[in-house]
Predict the structure.
Amino acid sequence: MISRGRMSRRDSLKWMGMNAAAAAAGSLPAPCRVVTPAAPAARERGIEPQEAPELIADRERRMQWWHAAKFGMFIHWGLYSVYGHHEWAMEDEGIPVAEYEQLARQFKPKPNAARAWAWLAKRAGQKYMVMTTKHHEGFCNFATQLTNYCAPRQGPGRDLVAEYVEAARAEGLRVGFYYSLMDWHHPDGARCATDEAARRRFVEYTHGLIRELMTNYGKIDILWYDVAWPLDAAGWESERMNEMVFKLQPEIIVNNRNGLPGDFSTPEQHITAAEAGRAWETCMTMNDSWGYQRADDNWKTTKTLVRNLVECAQGGGNYLLNIGPRGDGSIPEPSIERLSEVGDWMDKHGSTIYEAERCNVNRSVMAGFTRHGNRLYIHVYNWPGGTVAVGGLKTKIHAARLYATGRPVTVKQEEFRVQFTGMPETAPETPITTIEAECDGEPVQDTLWVRECRPRRGVGV
Ligand code: GLC
């Protein structure tokens, strides 16, 4: 039997096969270019490229809402939020465990702090939330029978995960749980790598905590594992872990950080699309810290955040954008400002993101692109003046307009260039203006074709 969340060798071969097929299908053969024949399909090479169809169908069904959601809020909150030096402080500053544990008594968040997070997430156009239930520091934000190092038995005096779940649901947002396998606090957290009895104890502890999370909070939409150090999938018994998770939560989706491929990949702090057919989500901080670091002022601009969201949607992926609330649960003001501004933009342009399908068009120094069917959305972040040009578009455009206002835009299309003209000299929208172009087929761009095939002239002028 093939279990869900497992990546067989067959699956990885399938991905490689799909990749080659996508590359072959990606651009139309240019008349002046020598076209290299596509590699024979995996099936022709005698390799079975298919994951079991019922598993593919099951994953597609479970992930439908997530693909439509596109944009989520990550929340890093724990004892490190009280300390305010980034969530890696315990290790990076070499803090003794007994000293770090004192933070658990000082952690006194205001009641229902998560309501403001959920409100802000909704305001920003985010459709789901993923909160740290236990980060590397080992402190459990939830009620557990397995350790006293948990919110109800320490400073908070209550179950913070329960409050979070309730807050997310109240705003109609999907609920995700982040869970770090690596644990800097548990006595077996490191020695499990070399001591089999310790490994068994620690795996039972870990599976036990996950079982509680999957049992005590109703329907959970995402389980977001993190850092598998110091074991591999066999050591964590990750297949058994996922089987338990799916048994308790048949609709859940899981990521790929317990050593198995799970349902989606998780590029971190960079936007790199996975091969076609594989779901992916870029997770990113708004400054340089996941957990609250009071002195970190390296904030991304709202324009960068919207550009990133566009870039993820262009590649068929999701964007999970982090906030690091303080120990009292309050959100740093720069995050509130930026998410509110992203929300203003999403109020007008949201459907160009939510409805986006993987888009072949991606080259410009002034714009990002998304696509829905034959509609191309040109998200201009460096507004050049009254004319915006895109090179190498191989699809005919028959109409265009400014997306936010519907104001028509004149299209001048030549073989190698399309120009959108007669637009205002200064950007009509902030931080990004979107032009909607109706194409007569799925838009395809090939700028190499421009380089190779655009007629040249003699060396004399
Ligand atoms: C890394 C970091 C961790 C953070 C995570 C988010 O794994 O160790 O602190 O929670 O990235 O993706």
About this structure: Residues 356 and 371 are 5 Å apart (CA to CA).
